[in-house]
Known about the structure:
By secondary structure, the protein is an alpha/beta fold. It folds into three domains: about 180 residues, FAD/NAD(P)-binding domain; about 120 residues, FAD/NAD(P)-binding domain; about 60 residues, 2-Layer Sandwich (Enolase-like, domain 1). It is about 25% helix and about 30% strand. Helix 1 runs parallel beside helix 8.
Amino acid sequence: MPDFKRIAIVGACAAGITAAETLREEGFAGQLIVIGDELHPGYDRPPLSKKLLQGEVEFKDIELRAPADLTGMGIEVRRGVRALRLELASQLIFLSDGGQLAYDGLIIATGLKPRQLPVPAGVTGVHTLRTLDDALALRGELKQAARVLVVGAGFLGCEIAATARQLGSKVLLLDTLALPLLRQLGRELGLAVRELQALHGVEFRGETGVHRFTDEDGKVTGAVLSNGDSVLADVVVVAIGSTPATEWLQGSGLNIENGVICDRFCRAAHNVYAAGDVANWFHPGYQEQIRLEQRMNATEQGMAAAQNLLGAARPFAPTPYFWTDLYDVKIQGYGRIEADAELKTLSGEFGQPGFTCAYVQKGKVGAVVGWNAPRELRRARQWLDQPVGVLA
């Protein structure tokens, strides 16, 4: 194990907290400092758009670790502090409180920041959802919202639309693509998700976006769409994707391109590793650079980065796993879905609860997905990377 005196972790949610705990579990006894820009202790993000937004759970239910537990492990967490700049040569992190933090080893786990749309100055009622504070502010407005406009029909947008509808709002879901989740799940499942949303009363409009927002007395009233239509809304949620939070790393000497570029060990530079949504690493199985915005990956990569920083030298090559919850439907999947993949039903009836399907690409099974079929999906996972002939 390298003789580190101090390891710094920038990012205090799933990947960062997991990395810190792993360092202790692997025997690192030196100073361990986690920098987090939020005032809250680290928490789980997936419930923000579902159970927490709906009011079924509160912060205590999604907290990753109690502060006392981390203190007991000798992990110092500095909350409400942002990393402003990194100097690789001097191994210094410059912080928003005016301080500097020297390190021997560093793990970058700063995650994502949501993309925005232009909003007139001073206008309220237009939200993005990334943090706990975002979710609580949105939850307060959804309780009284008659009409909700959700811009973006990826996983997050579809989940928010479903939650808003369950809270009683009339919901319009927009996307510049023709179907919800088209980029994530392809045409066939995109159609199934559109039908599911419609069944529950959510209107979907594809191939259109927002030209500008409208307001009255500083409160949003709706939007003019790119096709010229006008729509009304008491609350707007913008869910058009996110970008890696890497501004503070510009000029550091790290290779920054759609995240922090890392090798197969999650190493970005000497004694510098990255984990979670911000890491763009070389996947040995896929033989290319990939970046995953998935909760399971945050945990697994936080562990891998910590172990490799301490000298494990094990390539990180997970099978991607994703899921989303919409109403009473859980969609789960393993692998990666390419745009030109062909879908083949494995079990059950497509579009009905309990079915699984495979995505065939380049003669092999590239991904498997289940619709309310966790047990069948676990069995279907065996076909990943197998020749398509095994499905005949």
